[in-house]
Every structure is written in structure tokens, then in C-alpha cells.
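Researcher: Let's continue the batch. This sequence belongs to GntR family transcriptional regulator, and it's 226 residues. Same format as the previous ones, please.
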Amino acid sequence: MAKDNKSIKDKVYELIFQDIIKGEYLVNTIISERMLIEKYEVSKSPIREALVELCKENILNSIPRLGYQVVQITPKELHDVLELRVVVELAAFRKTKEWINEDMINKLEQHINQTIEMIDQHDIIEHWKRNMEFHLLLCSYSNNQWMYNTLESILKFCSRGATQYYFDTWQNRENMGRANAETHIKLLKALKDKDYNLCEQILIKDVSSMKENFMQSDYGKLGSEI
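Model: Same format as before. Here are the C-alpha cells for GntR family transcriptional regulator:
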């Protein structure tokens, strides 16, 4: 029974998190256990467990006798996390290139091909999810669980930051999925050619694109201030 409850909790956690990413729960919105029980049609226990975990990750803030508030990410926080992402992904790749093999490359290629199949779907959330999966897959080859966990946490944070600061801009970028796929194809080709210097250049440019877009906004300029 406990195992089933935990499984349901994980599903509820993901549902709430995805609704935050989709902008259904905006910053400072108050959500209640009763609201979530009715929406997701599950019992109180997994709802509460999911909310506790979301509070631990500072995604939600518990307000006694009122509910749970969606936490706002400050421009400075997002700026710093985007800066850290470049460092983590580059460090992970420099470990990976020491032993990357054909099987690893084939898995990356398979992921890219699956992404290409859904390019014409104008679902910005799905394109971002596929992009995160590619970068996490590449990072997993570093054989460093701390790096992987850190990147996973960074990407979740970036998802929330994108929703808060430039989700509307992303929604208007119908070519986002195609642009990501084209970049990943270039990276894959460089990997096959064992041109690791070019790989690093492509990876840095790819990872830095979100940071550059943010920095060009008024929020980004504020976030870079110390």
C-alpha cells in the first residue's frame, strides 16, 4: 500500500509541477489541498506528500491556514543558475569525451530522430522537455551522478524561470523544436568525427542561448546586477 501511495505521490508531484510550467498556476497563486484533490481525483495523502516535497524544493511555499503559494524566482537567481548550467554541462562533456562510444552516440542519434518526428507539433512544453532529455542523456555519460543530479535540478529551475519571465516569447517561437534538433544534429556529427573542440563550441553556444535571451531582456539586465 505504501509503495502505491508513493507512486501516486510521484505522479501528483509531476502533475503539479507541469501545471506550474504550463502557467496554469502563476507566481504567487495560492493552491489548496482540496483544489488539488478535486482536480487530480486522488486522496489527501499523496497530495500532501507531493506538496511537502514541492515545498522542500522551494517551488511552493506553505502558508498556514491558507494553502500553498507558487514561489517567484528572482532575476538574479535565474541569471546565476543559467551561468552555472554552462559550467556543469561543459565539465560533464569534458569527462564524457574520454570514453564516449558508438552505443552512446547511437542513443543520442535515436533521441534526435524521435525529436525530428514531432518537430511540426507546436507544443513548446514538449519541445523543451525533449531538449532537456537530450542534455541529461549526454550528461549521464559523464558517469558522475552529482553532475547529473545538479543538471537535472538546474533544468527544472530553468523551466520555472522560463515560464515566469519569457514564456510568451517562447510560445511565439514555432521553430524552437527545429532549431534545437538542428543544433543537436551538428553536435552529433562533431561527436562522430571526434572533433571534440567543435563539440564544446556547439554545446556552449546551445547551452548559452537561453542565458543570452534572458540577458537581453529587462529582467536579465536586472539579474546581472550584484
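Researcher: Any comment?
Model: The CA atoms of residues 80 and 223 lie 8 Å apart.
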